[in-house]
């Protein structure tokens, strides 16, 4: 698992107050937990049932509002997993960093971790900054096929100021991000050329990082306010898969002195206006479905939080605490699939991992996750035989919408030099997660093996574009090594559509 820490204005630091109630299971004195499912979210929380359902509807409404940034003209597939703790202090048990929320990426997809105060997600549901930022990252991967980092972070920050007005069926976009606005007025900002080079900067200090995030917000806010048509054309080109820098040059050809314009935008005095956008906000009518959660499931959530919550806690300490939670989960319910999956994934010994995966499949032969875990364990143990193929096919059959299962099957065929067999699975994984660098890496490998050199190069360049600071170093090296290899063989990339035909 990897996590992307929410470190800037879009995460609220908890600066005062005593420790709140820990996020315990009911058998240990904690509040009851429920899972609430809606069309686009699966929310697991220790909020009371009524508030949990309200929080889920808030997320659906927020998603609907964010989609209006792209005219509401698309409806991405997939479900986002959300963990909502009852209060902000509850996260303190899992990390040395005080946070109000963060996002994480797992092999099963994105996870959003938030904290309420026993009144759903925020005291003012119309002002959902943290969750808006993270959902924007998720949604923009479907809207923008390619996106340089400054655009990705700038759009997410721009949409933090979203204001929902469900009673008027309106959403207001583009308000000032007050902390970032104050920062750039006080400390200045990075030039656009510097932002284009952001990805090559490596690990930045907190102060440097904040300036890059604030500068990205500023440029995006400026472009939308003062060069809306050109900026929309730029995004349209990215949707078509054009190379970002070339797309930029085409969209802004003939525009002069952007640096001077931006300075006037920030320091131009009281006559400078910062317009907002008002868009329709369709009501949410889909029902939600709620079920009580078992004690074992709560221990699994706690184990997951120990593993993925940002902070400087050593991996060994994280794993030790997670192991205790997993052990308790399995004592409560030895057959709990999620607990067993987490234990399998955290087991270092590949042969022990394979043994546990076989046992899980025996107990749960109709679980696609169990079959996917077996396939991964076989791969880790060096087994690329028909047994792994059969396990991956079974996983896809049982979970056709699983990114992990589809990408795993495509990757198996790529590793065994059977690209024709992997093409359909690679297409499906790409449709489910178009901005996932691991999925794009697999897709490009399949294309390269099929002799579609330019398409492979373009897809691999897109994979490199989608790398962020939270990307595991191993995947980062894999993506860049493959990109260098394709460039050596294929030459300069053209710009065919990088999505699956």
CATH class of the largest domain: Mainly Alpha
Q: From the coordinates shown, what is the CATH architecture of the largest domain?
A: Orthogonal Bundle
Portion of residues within helices: 40-55%
Radius of gyration, rounded? 23 Å
Strand line-up in the sheet with most strands: 1-5-6-4-3-2-10
Mean pLDDT: 85
Order of helix and strand elements from N to C terminus: EEEHEEEHHEEHHHHHHEEHHHHHHHHHHH
- CATH fold label of the largest domain: Neutral Protease, domain 2
Estimate the strand proportion.
5-15%
Shape: globular
Structural class: alpha+beta
Give a quick account of the main beta sheet: strands, pairing sense, barrel closure.
Answer: 7 strands, mixed
Q: What is the CA-CA span between the terminal residues?
A: 30 Å
Give the oligomeric state of the chains in this entry, treating copies of one chain as homo and distinct chains as hetero. single chain
Task: Give the number of domains.
Answer: 3
Tally of alpha and pi helices? 20
What does this structure look like?
This protein is an alpha+beta fold and 501 residues long. The chain has 3 domains: 2-280, Neutral Protease, domain 2 (Orthogonal Bundle), CATH 1.10.390; 347-399, no CATH class; 404-501, Tetratricopeptide repeat domain (Serine Threonine Protein Phosphatase 5, Tetratricopeptide repeat), CATH 1.25.40. Helix content is 52%, strand content 9%. The chain has 20 helices and 10 strands. The strands form 2 sheets. The chain has a 7-stranded mixed beta sheet, with helices on one face. It has a 3-stranded antiparallel beta sheet with strand order 7-8-9, with helices on one face. The chain is globular.
